[in-house]
Amino acid sequence: MAAQQSLFADDPPDWEQDAAGEALTATVVMAGAGGGAAGEFDYLVPDQLADPRNPETRAEPGRRVLVPFGRGDRRLSAYCVAVGVKPRGARRLKSLLEVLDPAPLISESMLRLARWMAEYYLTPLGQVLETVLPAGVRGAAGTREVTLLSVPTAVAARLTRLELPEKQRRALESLAASTKPLSPPQLAKLADCTTAPINALRKKGLVESRVERLDTAQADELLAPTVERQQPKQLNKDQAHTLATILAALEAPQSQTVLIHGVTGSGKTEVYIQAIERVVGFGRQAIVLVPEISLTPQTVGRFRERFDHIAVLHSHQSDVERHRQWRRIAAGEIQVVVGARSAVFAPTPHLGLIVIDEEHETSFKQDTAPRYHAREVARRRAEAARAPLVLSSATPSLEAWVRADGPDPDALLASMPRRVGGLPMPDVRTIDLVQEAHGRGGRGAISRPLSQAIHASLEDRGQVILLLNRRGFSTHVRCPSCGYLLECPHCETALTFHRDTNVALCHWCDYREPPPRICPDCKSAGVNYHGLGTQKLEAEVRARFPSANVLRMDTDTMRSPGSHERALDAFRRGEVQVLLGTQMIAKGLDFPNVTLVGVINADSALHWPDFRASERTFQLVTQVAGRTGRGERGGRVMVQTFEPGHPAIAAAVRHDYAAFAAGELPEREALGYPPYGSVVRMIARGENAKLVEALLAKAADTIRRHGEEFDAMGPAHALRVIGPAPAPLEKLRGEYRFHLLVRSRDGAALHRVMQRVAAELEAPDGVRWVVDVDPVDMM
Ligand SMILES: Nc1ncnc2c1ncn2[C@@H]1O[C@H](COP(=O)(O)OP(=O)(O)OP(=O)(O)O)[C@@H](O)[C@H]1O
Ligand SMILES: [Zn+2]
Fold this sequence. Notes:
Layout: H1 2-10, H2 14-17, E1 22-30, E2 40-44, E3 64-69, E4 74-87, E5 98-99, H3 108-120, H4 125-132, E6 143-150, H5 153-157, H6 166-177, H7 184-191, H8 196-203, E7 208-215, H9 216-223, H10 237-251, E8 257-262, H11 268-281, E9 285-289, H12 297-304, E10 310-313, H13 319-330, E11 336-339, E12 351-357, H14 374-385, E13 389-393, H15 398-405, E14 411-416, E15 427-432, H16 433-440, H17 448-459, E16 463-467, E17 476-478, E18 496-498, E19 503-505, E20 512-513, E21 528-530, H18 534-544, E22 550-553, H19 563-572, E23 578-581, E24 594-599, H20 613-625, E25 636-641, H21 647-653, H22 657-671, E26 678-686, H23 689-711, E27 719-732, E28 735-744, H24 747-760, E29 767-773
Parallel strand pairs: 8-13, 8-14, 9-11, 9-12, 10-11, 12-13, 15-25, 16-23, 16-24, 22-23, 24-25
Antiparallel strand pairs: 1-2, 1-4, 3-4, 3-5, 6-7, 17-21, 18-19, 19-20, 26-28, 26-29, 27-28
Helix pairs in contact: 3-4, 3-14, 6-7, 6-8, 10-11, 20-21, 21-22, 23-24
Bound molecules: adenosine-5'-triphosphate and zinc ion.
Pfam families: DEAD (PF00270), Helicase_C (PF00271), PriA_3primeBD (PF17764), PriA_C (PF18074), Zn_ribbon_PriA (PF18319)
InterPro entries: DEAD/DEAH_box_helicase_dom, Helicase_ATP-bd, Helicase_C-like, P-loop_NTPase, PriA, PriA_3primeBD, PriA_3primeBD_sf, PriA_C
Binding site for Zn(2+) 2: 488, 491, 506, 509
């Protein structure tokens, strides 16, 4: 009641404010999904929220405001997206209640980008804004406690006379040589030891420690590993040519996209780092997007070696840390932002360049609303900033490839077909599993030729990487008498047996149960474990190569923070001879001592119900093959497959991207799939399968009806609806899932129709649906 009264007191009826018939209004969208209030709403801006003498409470675009909404005047938080003078209509507008942010959270240009996303991805603007602005951006500044070590002067004076074990001596000398105090992990890194010798030094009183509470940003700065500055490398001819292409794009009056297509190890990263050095030299900032999994100290280190002020954004950061980084970026203190997908929204004030490394990676597409693709958002952002967008990959997406290889003068292609330093591409050979199975009776996962190659590599003191894209021990559990298959009760997919934890696990919803000792169906004793997961492969490798140290990398073993880095460090130091795991080992690793890569089953993703199945297979095999032969010792690759003749596998074996594209593109073209057309996927889910399917059937009719006008314009504009059908993942967490695909060669027409359908479609209770524009995930 009190709030109401003060409200009336401050807020005289607006007909008194404005006799001329015009009023200052703010256009707002409700925050988040909007609580049922989708769309834009106008409110009057009361005088006290328009006072230039009080900039902290002024209504302006990019700030959040509190508004009364609906009949009961629910107070909702909203984003102000525009302010203007409007003729007062007959209908009386309500007034803003409060301005919540003392300054805009988002610039006008980022607001325009968000509007584009809302429109393109058919998502409410309020929800897009919550994605563009990290949750922590309005959070309070944080502090952090840091232990700092230094060497007392008295100790430093007799440093050379101390009797110490080797590691302690090294640590003490490193600390004494440092110009600033160091934290224990920092010192451990510098002296290449664990924290044990450092603790020993502290106990002996040879090292002083104090605890300080620092601003998070300061703490980050201090805790950043100390790195030696590296100079730019002398570029080879292909690299120099690629750099020149990017530098020319920096001069162009409009934004250009440069696709760097370079084989693995061709020195792509070095080229774009040099381009960024130029950009930073003009006082502008660069954003580098990398897949989350490659945000390793190794990658980040390469940027630290070359730039003074970098910010790293990743998904494990706390709100407070993220907020800090955000503010430093917005203040122009940061030269290079390195981060995963959402770093595309980093508020750099003078953006000079965006780079997307491993551009083909699926993780650049967000799988919740707004289902944006960072490549498309980056392109829009680069266009607005008139800055180049650099895409880099050994296996570009066909979307990027066709654009770069086509007539568009603003889409350029730079090829780097050779590895740096004259290193040859690794020799790749396929092993036909059909023939092998006949020869050796189908025992185990490792064929004889692969086994021999592993032996040879190990004897030669080389390291081995084995890829198997399936975690767990056995991929399914079946009764040998009646054929009963153990399934997840919520997802109707086969449960995977995990031997280390002795559970049958659903990889979709995490449902788990102990594996049955008798068949739940026919009650006969014993069940069989079929199929191959990484755990079983690990057991086989340990049994066959007992003297090798084996490390398994998959989401089961890499759960704890830092485990990924520790594993890669152990591999780099040579403590591990065989690294085996899922696709997380296929990416970006640069270990010169890897002389053999084995792909256990190259076909595993080849027949997925996804029009990109061949492309994914080609990418995976090519990328993992690229992890070998990166040193002087050369390297080879063995690819086990049931289909050595499949074009995707055959092209990967020859490192021949152009051949892969030439084989795949006509098929896409014939069917009107991307990059020759656009696809939208609709997914509906609910507990009642009939209702779910009926909703999509209705959607299909609505799409066809709205599509008629485009169908009439001929095949270049027509829409084609495929489905509805049960989604490949038919049941998930107790809900049935159906999907349909719509495709058209005319992306704009498709978009227009889907906009109308999304606005019209009403789902019954218990059924939810989403529209995925440019889908990547087809499950
Ligand atoms: N011009 C050069 N002279 C000498 N060494 C170079 C040069 N360019 C790059 N290198 C080195 O070669 C290795 C591979 O380079 P880089 O990582 O840039 O290649 P890449 O194409 O990005 O690799 P990938 O995509 O396969 O991970 C790195 O160790 C890098 O430091
Ligand atoms: Zn499940």
